[in-house]
Amino acid sequence: MRCLVVADLHYSLPQFDWLLAAAPEFDVVIFAGDALDIGSLVDFRAQILVVKKYLSLLSGMTRVIFCSGNHDLDERSAEGEKIARWIGDVRELGIACDGDSLTIGGTHFTVCPWWDGPLVKGRIESQLRDAALERAQRWIWVHHAPPANSPTSWGGKRFFGDVELVQWITQYQPSMVISGHVHQSPFIPDGSWFDRLGTTWVFNTGLQHGRPPVCIVLDLAEGTAFWLAAGEAQHIDLRAPLLRPAAGIENPPAWLTSLGGIADPLFLSSASPPRSAGWLGK
Q: How far is CA 116 from CA 41, 71, 75, 120, 121, in A?
């Protein structure tokens, strides 16, 4: 099983377009939060309608897993906690979202909402406790914020991770936790797109503007994780101990070469040659 991981697209429609073009190459697309952008000039309700359309198209191509991030919160609950109520609607599209757990190809996924107070945090604790009873050999959490005090949550001056997540990881030791939220972590000194807490691998895609988005690919059959950013591609061996820095990619698999060949639609209508993703010198 091969999973494409993105996060923090923040209503970047060129990045959503790229995601639609890339999705058929993968068994699962995992969106680790912040599809919307609270700082955008586009009305929040309009953003939700557009993102739902993209998610509907994605769900027709492959399995989709989607968790909320802090930019996705559109309402307050009756108890006064911020929630992403609109995300519940995408469940009708067959998309696994906040609060869901499911098994795909022997891998158990748990999708955690962004929590803004003790009630939602309590629901996550119950969700993890219940999911632990059904866990498969491989258990993956999708949780927008990375763990505290990890290179994946390093912002350059301090950590921006979730302290409670560290405690949950310590208690349950899932196979992997997939996150985003701290945009710069993979690109700055002492930060990283990957980490390991005990036996748990932790990932944060990071954010770059433009097209395509930064992404991570988990090739679970091969036990490899790839990180793909503008002009840069790295991979790690998930079956080996934590080792830094990650290695470059000398012999890219066919699916990666295919991703690098996705043309930018802005250039298809011009006389210039199509511009591709730019990985591996493509």
A: 24, 12, 11, 7, 8
